[in-house]
Design a protein that fits this description.
single chain; 378 residues; alpha/beta; 12 strands; globular; binds pyridoxal-5'-phosphate
């Protein structure tokens, strides 16, 4: 049996979610745009899913647009938010996911915006005073700051950021992909224009996500085509994906407290055990449970020969973990996040990310394997 500790990359699909999706695939194959009964039935399923998602996030169904995932939703928010509002200045952080950073960089390369990246500290906190200064001294600005960092788990206070953005009339987008289904979001209570979600991060299917667009903002589509998603996203809907997304989010909300307690317990236990048993280890990112994503534990190990073999050796031992979002080696050389935080790149860093399915026994196996790998190679 393998041990899967890469839940920030993706999660397993919940069997109840899968069962609902299979039923839709088998029985409700009409096109939701068709006006006959088969189409209308499927249209109802899509709209029920939209209502469910909207009600969990305390927004209106008209503010939810289904997409192919987090990347498309981030692209749509950023490109359309910037271009449709004639924005010439954007603020973000070097710790954002590439779905955000590369989209902003492309807008800058094409001459649409000047991009300011905030300073960050060694725990992954952004400089909020610098944000205010930049907002004060620039024209209407687009601000994109994620809720939780996907590599180190540090949380940004998006309620505070949204208030600062309100003060300076800035348009605020938050990549909430890592916290969706893990924290309660109430987007009506925030001054956030755009927020994003991806079903596969909360035990739903891959290839489906959504963009929340606050009703005060009117943007054009990113993808042109048919009239789907109220003319905002052309293309026949991923119906079973959308149904699965809504079910997965419903289950995540229904059991959130219980899962959070379990997962935070695993994270705390693993951190404690690692610090106890391997000298010279350090933990990356904020660790205060109120300011940190409970599903993620990022660890720097002592310098060792063949550091980039660490993840490979874990894999051989049946343990799946990750070196960062898009980094496949065991070293942190490829991680733009750890680099921006100034983490020593000569030491291998590994992101362990947990789900409700993980157990304390699995953590014991992983810690003991790490101990063996580190102590034999220091
Ligand atoms: C913070 C963050 N944003 C965006 C994405 C992209 O989501 P998707 O894989 O659904 O396109 C991810 C996924 O790794 C993520 O962690």
């Amino acid at each position: 049996m393998r041990i899967y500790l890469d839940n920030a990359a993706t999660t397993s699909i919940d069997p109840t979610v899968l069962a609902e999706m299979v039923l839709v695939m088998q029985e409700h194959y009409g096109n939701p745009s068709s006006i006959h009964a088969d189409g209308r039935k499927v249209r109802t399923l899509v709209e029920q899913a939209r209502k469910k998602v909207a009600s969990l996030l305390n927004v209106s169904p008209a503010e939810i647009f289904f997409t192919s995932g987090g990347t498309e939703a981030d692209n749509m928010a950023i490109r359309r938010g910037v271009l449709d509002y004639g924005i010439t200045h954007a603020i973000s952080s070097p710790l954002e996911h590439h779905a955000v950073l590369h989209t902003l960089e492309k807008l800058q390369d094409d001459g649409h915006i000047k991009l300011s990246l905030l300073d960050v500290d060694d725990k992954g906190h952004i400089d909020v005073e610098q944000l205010e200064d930049l907002l004060k001294n620039n024209d209407r600005t687009f601000v994109s700051l994620m809720h939780a960092n996907n590599e180190v788990g540090t949380l940004t206070d998006i309620a505070l950021i949204s208030e600062i953005c309100r003060k300076y009339d800035a348009i605020f987008h938050s990549d909430t992909v890592q916290t969706m289904g893990h924290f309660v979001h109430d987007f009506s209570a925030l001054n956030v224009a755009f927020a994003t979600g991806a079903a596969h991060k909360f035990h739903g299917p891959k290839g489906v996500g959504f963009l929340y667009v606050n009703h005060q903002y009117k943007i054009n589509p990113l993808i042109y085509g048919g009239a789907q998603e109220r003319n905002m996203r052309g293309g026949t809907e991923n119906v079973y994906g959308i149904v699965g997304l809504a079910k997965a989010l419903e289950l995540a909300y229904a059991h959130m407290d219980e899962h959070r307690k379990h997962i935070q317990g695993l994270k705390d236990y693993m951190r404690h055990e690692l610090l106890q048993s391997i000298p010279g280890i350090s933990i990356n990112g904020e660790q205060d449970p109120d300011h940190s994503l409970y599903t993620v534990l990022n660890v720097s190990f002592p310098e060792m020969e063949m550091a980039d073999m660490l993840l490979f050796n874990l894999d051989i031992a049946g343990i799946s973990a990750s070196g960062g979002s898009a980094c496949s080696s065991g070293s942190n050389i490829g991680s733009h996040v750890l680099h921006a935080m100034g983490i020593d790149k000569n030491r291998p860093s590994v992101r362990f990310s947990f789900s409700r399915s993980n157990t304390k026994e699995e953590i014991d196996v992983v810690v003991s394997k790490l101990k063996e790998l580190c102590l034999e190679k220091v």
